[in-house]
Amino acid sequence: MALKTGREYQQSIEKLALEAHVMGRTETQLGDHGLVQPSRAAVAVTYDGAHAEDAATRALFRVHSPLCKEEVNRFTHLHRSTDDLVKKVTMQRYCGHTTGCCFQRCVGMDAANAVYSTTFDCDAACGTDYHARFNAYWTMIQKDDLVVDGAMTDPKGDRGKRPKDQKDPDLFLRVVDRKPEGVVVCGAKLHQTGMLNAHEVLVMPTMGMREGEADWAICFAVPTNTPGIRYIYGRQTSDTRKLETPSLDMGNPRYGGQEVMTVFDHVFVPHERIFLNGELPYSGRLVERFAAYHRQSYGGCKVGVGDVLIGATALIARMNGVAQASHIKDKLVEMIHLNETLFACGIACSAMGHATAAGNFEIDMLLANVCKLNVTRFPYELARLATDIAGGLLGTMPSAHDLEDPVTGPYIKKYLAAAEGADPVDRIKVLRLIENLVAGSGAVAYLIESMHGAGPPMAQRIMIGRQGGLEEKMARVRTLLKIP
To answer: Of the candidates 248, 264, 283, which is a domain's last residue?
Structure first.
């Protein structure tokens, strides 16, 4: 059994010796880099949860896997029941409210469950052996307790053109050479959350492929330190505050997120690591299943971060001396209502899940899309209400350097005093945390990702339209009214 601790995880990632281009420089000591370290610490929380003193928490993170016949971290689990699906969302909420940010391990879990059932279906129809390959691969992931980054989103180039019609065919990741022992791929995957904190990358097509696009219908996995892969670190609002001391202006002084452009420059993939290779109908099925699993995830992780924002907003209201005002109470109730509605959607699509032909469990796709469509709206409203309650200081506070200055510090503490018993420095800390989530680096995961992660709003609307059962609803009306 290899249920790693957070410390053991960090040590294992360091052994990969990953390199990345960060703000114009090639960085090799990523574990010590101020921009990377907070995101790596957030991933470590997903490991430490399996070793928590509280038995209920350990039960969320630990589960017996029939695949490897051992107890594994739930982030590597293939769901075997609706209870597994519910516990997944509950675990994600725990991680969100513990870190106050994206903890980066959900995409690999969602990709694995989608690939597992899709390879089974493909083998049954096409006589391939992808499912056995994936089982062997994922058994290794479970036994070694690894982080897998799921990579789906291609640059796409001209959105009005298909992959085969692009001026540069590499704008969708593709096979450029086929060898007896494997394939060579070129392309890029954008918006890769936590890529530099992962041991493996599981690559999927970004859309359903059509006739003539077999080279783009490729699914595979390789280690993140595979030759030919380049990492370009993404900028985030106020991200260089992570490099400053003192750390008060960071807002979230312990944890953070990470987004990476990942380039595949003639990367070799051996046959045993390939799980789809030109089977066109199954590229779309894989995309649809992965998207649904990941839309379910947002009913947990974003709710957990919402818990942090609600708590900080309630605390700043108390520090400001307005906690008893009726309109403040009403706004806080609205924040709770919106956040719990998101959680309810995540739990609902889980509880209404069903077994796939492969044996793992899939969520109710309609409700998963309803969940994610709400996520594209509600966090923005929570952020608006938090900004309203917190006040204008969110945008005008002096820096931590001025707070420590012997001349300006006393003035700041004097004039930023509020309710009796509320320390001015503590008040600044809470305001900085709210700022981080609504306008700083934390807003990348909480707001921008809520809009575009797992697909933008129109993607959910399309799926809701397909799965909403309008014909069945009309038939029921005909039956009720005795209309032929």
So the answer is: 283
| pLDDT tens string 300-329 | 999 999 999 999 999 999 999 999 999 999
Question: Of the candidates 218, 241, 221, 96, which has an alpha carbon nearest to the alpha carbon of residue 163?
Answer: 218
Instruction: Let me know if 449 is a catalytic residue.
Output: yes
**pTM score above 0.70:** yes
- Active site includes 102? yes
CB 124, CB 66: distance < 8 Å: no
Inform me whether the pLDDT recorded for 1 exceeds 60: no
In terms of domains, do 220 and 134 share one?
A: yes
Catalytic residue chosen out of the listed positions 68, 95, 106, 219: 106
Which of the following is catalytic: 200, 279, 294, 371?
294
Is 301 annotated in the active site? yes
Question: Do 440 and 333 lie in a common domain?
Answer: yes
CA distance 97 to 43: 13
Q: Which domain covers residue 108, as residue numbers?
A: 6-283
Indicate whether 175 belongs to any domain: yes
Catalytic status, residue 298 = yes
337 and 412 belong to one structural domain: yes
294 is a catalytic site residue: yes
Residue-level pLDDT at 484: 93
Read off the pLDDT of each residue in 112-117 and give the average, rounded to a whole number: 98
Q: Is 219 a catalytic residue?
A: no
Same domain, 377 and 468: yes
**Peptide bond preceding 246: is omega within 30 degrees of 0, i.e. cis?**
yes
Q: Quick one: pLDDT at residue 2?
A: 76
Which of 259, 279, 362, 435 is catalytic? The answer is 259
Choosing from 265, 283, 301, the residue where a domain stops is: 283
For residues 198-221, average pLDDT? 98
- Rounded Cα distance, 108 and 121, in Å: 20
